[in-house]
Write a structure and sequence with these properties.
It contains twelve helices and eight strands. By secondary structure, the protein is α/β, with parallel strands linked by helices. Strands 1-4-3-2-5-6-8-7 form an eight-stranded mixed beta sheet, sandwiched between helices.
Length: 282
């Protein structure tokens, strides 16, 4: 398989061929940066660890070459940091028993400016065409990070280039740089994080180039997951100890005429009505 960027790279933990690795993928995560998947797509990673017949595949769209402002990696060159973060991502794949990690090596500015979105969409369409995953996890369109939103748009664009029978059954837009607990219950998907706690922590902790720079993603993810479960419904006890929140973006694959902006506007309208209706009851 050929990708658009010459620096694209593939890591297969058990060293089978790329065709074999992709053919077994049932759950695919598409993220902007190294470490995003271990934060937002734990549901799929843990599911595949608990179900040996299922496999998680990872696609990382950019190299993440921006150095932390402090810590061990302060002042590292973009080239060195990209290599470090790629190694960390591959280590996470070993811990999580991933089928494959594909590093597409785009630069964030290519995606946020829109210049590289069509090429990224082509790469993603080719990967999904080969892998046929049932479930795809990516960023949600209300994320606070511009690159995350661009990747979400590219995922939708790429999947729409496939015939309907080749599209995934489910597409989740997962929270990361903005919680999704503002979504009303009918729009909010709570993905249970069931699996060994030490594995969850290890998957985040391998990204030392981020954590040692002052962002304790390992603690933040666990804290949010616990809070999501405990504070989900004020009138019911939680069914799970940890959950991660997502939007169900599958409707965008059923209706190619539905604009991403219109989809998000509907969610915002639902939230607005929910808040105002409570105030008006008083």
């Amino acid at each position: 398989m050929k990708f658009n960027k010459p620096g694209a790279d593939v890591f297969i933990p058990d060293e089978v061929t790329l065709d074999e690795a992709l053919d077994r993928v049932t759950h695919l995560g598409v993220a902007a940066h190294p470490d995003d998947l271990e934060l937002m797509a734990l549901h799929g990673i843990l599911h595949c660890l608990e179900h040996p017949g299922d496999w998680f595949g990872a696609v990382v769209c950019t190299g993440g070459g921006r150095a932390p402002e402090r810590g061990r990696y302060e002042g590292a060159s973009p080239e060195r940091l990209r290599e470090i973060r790629r190694r960390e991502q591959n280590l996470a794949a070993l811990i999580g028993r991933y089928a494959v990690v594909i590093h597409l090596d785009y630069q964030s500015v290519e995606l946020t400016s829109g210049r590289g979105l069509d090429k990224l969409a082509d790469d993603l369409a080719g990967i999904v065409r080969s892998a046929h995953p049932s479930v795809v996890y990516t960023h949600n369109p209300a994320d606070r990070h511009d690159t995350h939103v661009a990747v979400c748009a590219a995922v939708v664009r790429g999947l729409r280039r496939l015939p309907h029978p080749e599209r995934p059954r489910t597409l989740y837009g997962c929270e990361l740089w903005r919680s999704l607990d503002w979504l009303v219950s009918m729009d909010r998907v709570a993905l249970p994080l069931e699996g060994p706690e030490n594995i969850m922590r290890a998957l985040a902790a391998v990204h030392d180039s981020q954590i040692s720079g002052g962002r304790r993603y390992d603690l933040a993810v666990e804290g949010r997951a616990l809070a999501n479960a405990a504070l989900d419904d004020p009138h019911r006890l939680p069914e799970h100890t940890r959950t991660w929140l997502a939007m169900d973006l599958t409707g965008l694959l059923h209706n190619d005429e539905l604009e991403l902006t219109d989809y998000v506007a509907t969610l915002l309208d639902n939230f607005r009505r929910d808040v105002l209706s409570r105030l008006q009851r008083g």
